[in-house]
Design brief:
The complex is a heterotrimer of chains A (302), B (374) and C (218). By secondary structure, chain B is mainly α. Chain B is 62% helix and 6% strand. Chain C is built from seven helices and two strands. The chains are: A alpha/beta (302), B mainly alpha (374), C mainly alpha (218).
Chain lengths: 302, 374, 218
């Protein structure tokens, strides 16, 4: 099994105006896959499809080598899930939720649960309705990790949490992954957070997967170039020209955003009579923004 | 007036033909010959008679079309109504006549001819004056079923039938001769009354003492109903339950109830006017005895009940039933006990049906959709 | 797994169940006491019968109400969370639904037993007048079946999505509106009455609610 999650031409319509179409995802086994996308791009809907909570109108979903939703119980027994919004029963106490949740999983690890309990500093006697947002998030993470899953599916697990809580949760995930050969599928719009932990990235926009590649390739491949003297029409560049901004924002010359940049490509500019003044590395967030901008707008004419 | 004469004439012609055929056939000849050809002749004449009556009804309806009244004739029942209610009234008249036939069988011919005008209370049209003069008006509430209307027609027939009986028998039936079968619900009410009645006489009757049943029915008639129907304890309670002596503040009431003077109770109850003393059985129970007698007597039972003019209810009912008084009581008693209402106990079928529905809906719940909206 | 589900359902519906236990236990006792049947005379037999009959409606209301409340509390928390948690658990949906159904059924047993004990006590301490009989076992059995039927009906409705429940209500509403329009236009026809008759007469599901719900009867 090379991919822990695989979708092929997935299609799902939610309401009149939004549709997930031709979604073909591949999450390699053992990877930490960051699922990026702006709000409303379809991340949560995709996760709901992967977890068997929604039924796709077309396409196939394979999780942990088995077909979803046909093998949903077997898949879910090996999957730890933290949804975007709290889904537990607010009238139960923390202790009651633990016992309730544990009863469904043969792989439940009480030792890990107790260890995480101490680490997260949760109060067992409190009702869920009395927990803060951070405490609820930590509890959901605890439940997911204490199951000893082979796959963690985390839908914006740190959204709205303070940095201390976010850090604690991320560390808990990384500790778990380091102990077990588990894959993590984590969605977020906090790009900088995923940049540090993910080794694969998939970018969703408006129901489509616009990019999927190793994180390093994504980060290193997108550059901002300052170019002067370039002709109006650029023929056959060796890189992917994502955007060309003739507005003067960084000084004289044009600003080009390119993908797939490599250093020897500097010679290209000499060939077209242009001068390459500067090559700027973009971080994941900037690259993400540029990628979306070029995906949504018409491509610059080559 | 002319209409009545017309109908009477048609009926009379039919009866005359029938009687002529019967008179022309002496019993000796019947004994000596096969009855079949005569039966066929009677049937043929009966069919002619029915056809004549249908024609009379159509002529009647045509004549009344001027005042928008339809006529329906079933046996002795002539029922008029407005065309808009015809369907309902026709079904009701048919049912009413069938119910009479179920009890009286061949004796339906003895039922007095009655003319009714049946109309809904919702109708805004006044009853035409010619109709009011010749017919008895029956009004039924809007929303009534044809069974309801049939019951009303039947009740009027039963009230009218009292005229054929002596006073004692009329009183026994509560001025309402039971010519229609009792519904199961009515037998059940009789059972409940018998089973829960407080009077010692009825307790004994319920438990099977048929002689006490007879006393409760006043068969034979008690010399002194006050002592014949009620014992001392019964009398004390009778006085307590009857409000008239309370309101009159009769001192004998206090003596009867608190001092325990049975003589005071007797004096009070004997001071009642004839007919005021409440018998142990209600009118409904007494009518149920008559229904049992008519059912037991079969063909000709009603005729025998009417024909015995010199005697009271006991002789009329035993004559109708064609059995002894004790046999009549035994049959009635068995019929009442058989009408015991279904108590709380659940039948096996009902229990399994409920269990089936529990499983059916549980299965429906198990098939609830897994998919939720995003 | 079942124990966990039973615990949660008990926690959510314990107020309803406990209250029902108290009511179910006292109902037969009160019906007998209020009817004055502890020391009756034969003079009051018919009045007593009538008084007992006046209490019969409370048994049906209790059975229906109990079934409704236990069924809706079984699913209320899942509805609140849009079934996300239940759907993320590693058991088939039908299995989960059956576990909830079984848990609710077990909780129903408490009021049923309470009513049975109350009925036995009531009839044991009362002097039944001649001509009447006591039916504590039959009453308890009928109550049990009626409560379970009501529970299963409402459980099935609650188990569906809000959309399903809406469909059911829409159908019922459409029937009522149709009936009203037919009557207003003079077309008559008791559509709702006919359908209602099918439901409350054998073999309809609510037939168990009809009949004489009388602890003491002829």
């Amino acid at each position: 099994m090379s991919n822990v999650i695989e979708t092929r031409n997935l299609r799902y319509r939610a309401g009149r105006n939004f549709e997930i179409r031709e979604l073909s995802l591949n999450v390699p086994a053992g990877s930490i896959y960051g699922f990026l996308g702006p709000n409303g791009s379809g991340k949560t809907t995709t996760i709901a499809l992967l977890m068997g909570q929604l039924r796709a109108s077309q396409g196939s979903i394979t999780v942990l080598g088995q077909s979803m939703p046909q093998a949903a119980p077997r898949i879910l027994a090996r999957t730890g899930f933290v949804p975007e919004r709290p889904h537990l029963y607010p009238t139960l106490t923390v202790e009651e939720v633990l016992r309730y949740h544990a009863s469904f999983y043969q792989s439940w690890d009480w030792r890990r649960a107790d260890e995480l309990f101490g680490r997260f500093e949760l109060d067992r006697s409190l009702k869920l309705s009395a927990l803060s947002k951070g405490e609820t998030g930590k509890l959901m993470m605890l439940l997911a990790l204490a199951q000893n899953p082979d796959l963690l599916v985390l839908d914006e697990p740190t959204d709205g949490l303070d940095p201390v809580v976010r850090r604690a949760m991320i560390i808990a995930v990384l500790d778990y992954v380091s102990q077990r050969d588990a894959a993590v599928f984590i969605s977020s719009h906090l790009v900088h957070e995923l940049e540090r932990i993910c080794d694969w990235v998939g970018v969703m926009d408006n129901g489509k997967l616009v990019a999927e590649m190793p994180m390093q390739t994504f980060k290193s491949g997108i550059k901002r170039l300052r170019v002067t003297g370039a002709p109006a029409l650029v023929e056959d560049p060796p890189f992917v020209l994502l955007s060309r901004d003739t507005g003067e924002t960084l000084g004289a010359g044009e600003v080009w955003v390119v993908r797939g940049w490599q250093t020897p490509m500097q010679q290209y500019f000499e060939g077209i009579g242009a001068s390459l003044r500067e090559v700027v590395d973009l971080d994941l967030e900037e690259g993400f923004v540029e990628l979306l901008r070029t995906f949504r707008a018409p491509r610059a004419q080559a | 007036m002319c209409d009545r004469m017309f109908r009477t004439g048609v009926r009379g012609i039919g009866v005359a033909i029938l009687l002529a055929c019967i008179a022309g056939t002496s019993p000796a000849r019947l004994e000596a010959q096969d009855v079949a050809p005569y039966r066929a002749r009677v049937d043929s004449i009966t069919r002619l008679w029915e056809a004549a009556r249908e024609s009379a009804a159509r002529a009647d309806s045509a004549r009344r079309a001027a005042i928008s009244v339809d006529t329906i004739i079933r046996g002795a029942l002539v029922v008029m109504t407005t065309p808009q209610f015809r369907d309902l009234v026709e079904a009701a008249t048919q049912l009413a006549w069938e119910q009479l036939g179920a009890t009286l069988r061949e004796d339906t011919a003895l039922v007095r001819a009655r003319t009714f005008y049946v109309v809904s209370t919702e109708s805004n049209d006044p009853v035409p004056e010619p109709i009011r003069q010749e017919a008895e008006v029956i009004a039924y509430a809007d929303g009534s079923t044809f069974e309801d209307v049939a019951m009303r027609i039947g009740q009027r027939i039963e009230i009218a039938a009292v005229a054929d009986l002596d006073e004692a028998t009329s009183r026994f039936f509560g001025n309402h001769v039971p010519l229609r079968p009792f519904a199961d619900r009515e037998w059940t009410e009789v059972y409940v009354e018998l089973a829960t009645a407080p009077w010692s006489l009825l307790r004994a009757c319920y438990l099977g003492d048929l002689g006490r049943c007879g006393e409760a029915f006043d068969m034979p008639a008690a010399d002194d109903p006050v002592t014949g129907w009620y014992d001392a304890a019964d009398r004390r309670w009778y006085v307590e339950a009857d409000a008239r002596w309370y309101h009159e503040r009769d001192p004998r009431r206090t003596q009867c109830m608190e001092a325990g003077s049975d003589q005071a109770c007797l004096d009070l109850m004997r001071s009642l006017e004839p007919g005021e003393l409440q018998p142990p059985f209600s009118d409904r129970v007494r009518r149920s005895l008559a229904v049992a007698a008519l059912e037991l007597g079969g063909d000709g039972a009603y005729g025998r009940m009417l024909s015995d003019t010199s005697h009271g209810p006991e002789q009329r009912l035993t004559s109708a039933a064609g059995v002894s008084r004790d046999s009549l009581f035994a049959t009635w008693h068995a019929r009442v006990l058989a009408a015991r209402p279904e108590p709380m106990t659940i039948t096996r079928v009902a229990g399994w049906t409920a269990f089936f529905w529990v499983i059916a809906f549980a299965t429906l719940a198990a098939r609830s959709t897994r998919w939720r909206r995003a | 797994m079942f124990k966990a589900i039973l615990y949660t359902q008990w926690k959510w519906s314990r107020a309803v169940v406990m209250l029902s236990v108290v009511i179910a236990f006292t109902l037969p006792i009160m019906s007998v006491q209020r009817a004055g049947i502890t020391e009756p005379s034969r003079w009051e037999t018919q009045e007593l019968l009538h008084a007992i009959e006046m209490w019969s409606v409370w048994y049906t209301l209790l059975a229906a109400g109990l079934g409704l409340l236990v069924a809706t509390t079984a699913w209320a928390q899942d509805h609140r969370g849009r079934h996300v948690y239940a759907l993320s658990l590693p058991i088939p949906r039908w299995h989960y639904a059956m576990l909830r159904f079984a848990a609710g059924s077990l909780l129903l047993a408490a009021p049923v037993v309470a009513l049975w004990i109350g009925a036995l006590l009531a009839t044991a301490t009362a002097q039944i007048p001649p001509g009447l009989n006591a039916y504590p076992n039959a009453l308890a059995l009928r109550f049990a079946l009626a409560a379970f039927v009501a529970y299963s009906v409402f459980f099935a409705i609650s188990a569906g999505t809000t959309r399903t429940a809406g469909y059911v209500l829409a159908v019922v509403g459409a029937l009522v509106v149709t009936q009203v329009m037919m009557e207003a236009s003079g077309m008559g026809g008791g559509l709702v009455e006919v359908l209602f008759d099918r439901v409350i007469t054998w073999p309809g599901p609510l037939e168990i609610f009809t009949g004489r719900w009388m602890l003491i009867d002829v």
